[in-house]
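Incident log, entry 3
Record: NifU family SUF system FeS assembly protein (145 residues)
Problem: checksum mismatch between cached and fresh output.
Input:
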Amino acid sequence: MILDHSSHPHHRGKLSDSTQTIEMNNPTCGDVIELELIVKDDIITDIAFSGSGCSISTASASMMTDAVVGKPVSEAEHLAVIFAQMVQGNEIPEKDEEALGDAAMLSGVAKFPARIKCSTLAWKALGKALTNEQGKAREGQFHKD
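Fresh output:
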């Protein structure tokens, strides 16, 4: 499933009328993501990503877009938090694992610490895009966590 999401990513592309955008990178490996969202009435109505990254980064971005499109912002933010906990090896409730959808398959990343940043890049971009008051990341804002 991870290879399928990497080879045929869902929601890859650009949005012409995004309300939130952010570009982030993982300086340790060179993964780059530009994430665009349309948020209306506190619901993520559409999402797209572009950029370049390893198979884990691309698959995770694809899985993340599937998990959050159509969801309220608060639920998407919660999913980003629990995803980060999961890939760091922490147990998460079964209902949260189910809510992650295909992204729950990335729990094994916890065994490979060097890949955790690859898997969380899109999710961190999502969190930052949703919490930025103006819907735009400041210029030069990159993945540092």
